[in-house]
Amino acid sequence: MKIAFVGASGYGNVGDDTYPLVFAQQLPEHELVIYNSDLPKSLPEDLDMLVMGGGGIVYNHGKESGAAMESPHFRCMKFYMDEAIRRRIPWGFLSCGFQFQYNGEEDDGSRLQPWAPYLRQAHFVTLRSPRCVRIAQEISGREDVVFAPDAAYLYRPETGSSPDDMRSITLIPAGLVNARNVLINHYLRQFAASGLSVTWLGMGAPSDNQEILAEAAERFPQARIIASPGPQVAFEMIARSRLVITGRYHGLVFARTSRVPFITPVDAPYKIRMENLEEGISAAATHFEVLRRYLPR
Do the domains 2-149+279-292 and 165-273 sit in the same CATH topology, yes or no? Predict the structure, then answer.
């Protein structure tokens, strides 16, 4: 069967680029087509299912957006959802999260109101955070929203071993994890005193990483810089690390999957702060258990 996935892959963000690999691993018997915010002229006529996700694609912020206004991003996502509704094919949200511009917005679902009718109409809704589940229930009125850990926890590339990398401290820049941060500099002085090597691993899109990695290279010339790793290289680097300090959500995900100790800033974005670290990562398979219930027979 032909299934379309609508996410944010294709722009160089390692976490978002991991989802299509997971989908292919989990659904090898199906034909998958991947889309994002770059709208196609049309969708295949023989499409059997549409899936929104994974990742933080549910948001409605922008210069012109308010509580009831539709942002440019939402209008792009609306194109796909309207098409699935028009064709009367199964569709839903899988391993999605809600994105907010500011940390204080996570309890305010008012900006997500344009999404509410679509959350109500979707055949299935699986979200990657209990907080997102609560918000979805509040704005949609439905009680069957499912929580499961992010689908990227299921990513399992084959990794080798390198003794040299096992003593590396890996920093994944974003937010407070940067070369100017006082606490990060304090950590780096301690690592240097212990003879540990340091790697700066860029997991964001190139536009997010370029400046911050250039500054890291200038301030710490002895450090290793990996600017555009792709999911497999990023996963391998994290799996071989002694410790990971990450400002990126999927740096946390890859570290947990690899059982590598990790640190995140206290004032990290809410999708990191609200990650349910008590939930076993194998429960991420729940997303696909739900999806398979709605596959046409």
Answer: yes
Tens of pLDDT, residue by residue over 176-235, are 999 999 999 999 999 999 999 999 999 999 999 999 999 999 999 999 999 999 999 999
**Block residue for tokens 């379309």:** 4
CATH number of 2-149+279-292: 3.40.50.2000
CB 254 within 8 A of CB 153: no
Cβ 35 vs Cβ 80: under 8 Å: yes
Residue of 118, 5, 103 lying closest to 58 (CA atoms): 118
Q: Where are the domains of the chain?
A: 2-149+279-292, 165-273
pTM of the predicted model over 0.85: yes
Could you give the C-alpha distances from 239 to 31, 98, 153, 253, in angstroms and in order?
30, 28, 13, 11
Q: Is CATH 1.10.10.10 what the domain over 165-273 is classified as, yes or no?
A: no
CA 12 to chain centre: 12
Q: Please say if the pLDDT value at position 272 is more than 60.
A: yes
First to last CA, the chain: 9
What's the CA gap between 238 and 260, in Å, rounded? 7
Task: Please give the Cα distance from 7 to 152 (Å, whole number).
Answer: 13
Distance CA(20)–CA(35), nearest Å, equals 10
